[in-house]
Amino acid sequence: MPIYMEISPLHRTVTIVARGKIAPDEIRGMAQQIFEAKVRPFAKIVEVAGATTEFTLDQIVRLAEIMRGASNEKRGPIAFVVSSERTAFPQAFANQTEEEGPIRLFTNLREARTWAEHVQHGGDPGAANDGQGGMSDPRRLGVMFRGARRRGVPVRSLYAA
Q1: How many domains in the chain?
Q2: pLDDT tens string 83-95
Q3: What's the pTM value of the predicted model, to 2 decimals?
């Protein structure tokens, strides 16, 4: 599974999970999808602990430009979940974009989510779900990236019926 991305308008969150060797065109496709979805102010949880890539610094700069586009909206927090052995790409991306908004590296998904929620909602845990009591977002959108291809993925409820 190279890259899976899920966008939740209700929770104003983008979750990205990458596994295995990730090609530059898969990363660019994901960045383009984020730009097209107009979710710049959303919190982003980027889980790349099980992924590797060979991105150059120039490619990382171009990636940030794609995601930024012509938007003047403030960027939401970005929490990278990384393996302690593989931090080069997330650290380089953080160094190139830290002035655009809060960004941190974590080795634990729970800590990353807690931090992103705190930054985005000022520490109010109830604000993250807009008072929906933890309800699943029926408008969630899932996208899978493989090479230069992308396809929508059905997203099911987080709660059994």
Answers
A1: 1
A2: 888 788 888 888 8
A3: 0.76
